[in-house]
Description:
This protein is α+β, with helices and mostly antiparallel strands. The protein has helices spanning about 25-40, 50-75, 80, 95, 120-130, 185-205, 210-225, 240-250, 255-270, 325-350, 360-365, 380-400, 445-465, 490-500, 505-510, 540-545, 595-600, and strands at about 90, 105-110, 135-140, 150-155, 155-165, 275-280, 310, 370-375, 405-410, 425-435, 445, 470-480, 610.
Amino acid sequence: MASNGSSGQTKTYGTTSAISDAPPKPKDLLLTKELQECLHGRNYFETAEELEQRVVVLARLNALVKEWIVNVSMQKLPESVAREQNGKVFTFGSYRLGVHNKGADIDTLCVAPRHVDRSEFFSGFADMLRDEPGIEDLTPVEDAFVPVLKFSLKGIEIDLLFARLALPSIPQDLDLLDINLLRNLDIQSVRSLNGCRVTDRILQLVPNVETFRLALRCIKLWAKCRGVYNNKLGFLGGVSWAMLVARTCQLYPNAAASTIVTKFFLLLSKWEWPRPVLLDNLITQEEAPLDMEIWDPRHNVNDRFHLMPIITPAFPQQNSTFNVTQSTLDVMINEFMIGLGVMQQIEEGAKDWTELWQPSPFFTTYKHFIVLTAIAQCKNDEQAWLGLVESKLRKLVQALERNQFISRAHVNPKSYGPLPSEENQFSLRWFIGLQFTSTDGVNVDLTYDIRSFVNTVHRQAVSSNIFRDGMQIDAKHFRRKDLVTFLPANLLKTKKKAQGKSDGRKAVAAAAAPAALATGSEISEGLESATPASSQQPGVDALQRTLSNGPVAATLSSPRSLSPGAEPSAVKRPADDAQDGQPKKRKCSEEEGMEGAESSTSTTTDDATTIES
C-alpha cells in the first residue's frame, strides 16, 4: 500500500520502494504531449456529448434499479418500509478506470438488499427492461461463471451484474471496499463485487491517476493491435493490463506517461516469471479475515503452476491470468521485447507513436496453421455456440503444447466471420499458428488432441443445454501460402514485408517445420463413427448418441486411408491433465465438473492428422 516514511523519505507505493522518483524531463513531457495527440488523432477519445450520453444512460439505469427494488420490497415488507428501500448501480472496468474508448460497453453492478433474490433479478428486472424504451438485444446469461444481463440502452452496450448484500437496505454512501460486506454472501455475489472492488483499489494504489490513465490507454491500444488482448484465449484482459501499468507507475511515481510506457516494456521484458506481480501486500491464507479461497501457492497446489501470476489487490486476492499458457506467455514476452525496441526508437526520434500500434505480423510469422471454424444453424444459436467454442480454444492450445514436436501453438485473438461465399452461414473462424521443433523422419499426429477438444466442446454444449442440430466444428490445415482462401493476398504480402522491417526476429519464422504436410486436410466426420459401441463406457452411451445427432468435426484427414473403426497407429496420446503444467483453480473456472466427463469417455478415430516427413 502507499505509505509515508519519516520526514525526508520518499513515499512508497506498492510492495517495494520506487526504482526512480526522478521528475520528468522536458523531452518526456514533449513525448507525452505527442502521445495524447496521436491518440486523439486516432479518434480514441469520446466527445463531450458522447460522455454526457453515458452519464444519462447510467442515471436512467440507476432509476430503473431503484424502482424495481421498491416493487419487490412492496411484496415482502410493510409499505412504509418498502418505499424507503433502495438499490444502487456501480461501474467498473475501463469506464470506471477512465480509459474507455469510443463505442466501448459499460461494466455495471446492481447492488440490492438481502430480501431481493438473484432469480428476481433475472426474471422481474429483465421483464422490466424489456418494457423500457431504448432497450435492445436483452440477453440474460444466468448460468455463467459470473451471471450477467447483457443489453443495449440508447445505443450503449451494458453488462449488468447482480450482488445481494446481507444488509436490510442499501445506503447511498456505500463503500464496496469494506471487507465486511463480503460476509455471508453467496459466491456469485462475491464474484460480482470483485470487479468493482479491484477497479477502485487500483485507482487508490497508483501515485498519479491521470498519468496512469494515459499510459494505460496507450498500452491497451498496443495490446489489441499486437494480438495479445484476450483473456479467454490465454492472453491478458483489461484488468490485467491495468495492473501491470499500475505496478509500473508505482515503481516510477513521478514519471510522465511516455516514460511509464517505456519502463513498462523494460520491466516486463526482463520480469522473471512466474514471480507474481503485486500491487499491494499479499494476504496469506492464515491472515485472511474471511474464510475464502485466495491466491496462495503455499496452500493451494494449483496456484504453483500458474505461469504469469498477476494478483488482484482487493480481497479475496486472485490471479487474473490463470488462463495463460506457455505459448501465449512466449508470445507476450516476445512482444514486450519488440515494444521496448520501438519505444527506444521513439525516444530517439527515429519513429513516431504510430509505429508502436502497427498490427502484429501473425500470418507471416508461421508456416503452418490450423483453421478452426465454428458453425451454427441459425441466428438464435450463434452467440451461445460460437462463444462456447471460443472459451474452450485454450484447451486445444494446451493439448497441442503437450505434443513433443510443437514448440508453440499461437491462436490469433482476432476471429473472422463468414466468407462472401458463406453469406448465409452463421460462423466464426480462428487461426492457430504452429511452430515445430525438428520433425525430420517422424510423423506428427494431432488427431487425438483435436478429437478431445471437439468432444469437450460438445459435452459442455449438451450439459449447458445449448447444443442444437447443425452445430459444427470444422478444422483444416493450411500452409501460409494457401491462406489466400480466407485473406487477401496483398494483405499477406504486406504483413510479410512489415515483419522483416519491424522486429527482424528470424527465429520464429525460420522454426523447424515438417518436411511434408498434407494441405487442405479436413475435419468433417460425425461422432457416431468415432466411438465403436464396444468401447463405450456405462453411462456414456446416451451422451454419445446425443452428440452424434449433429456433425462433429474430430479428425484431420491424412493421405492414408484407414478401415472404419480402426485406430491409427500414429495417434499420440497427450499426458494426463495432472501433467498439464498449469491446472486451473476449481473455483475460478466455469469448466468445473467437466474434467471428469472428459476423462470418462474414450474415443478412437478413423483418420489421423499427420505431419509426414
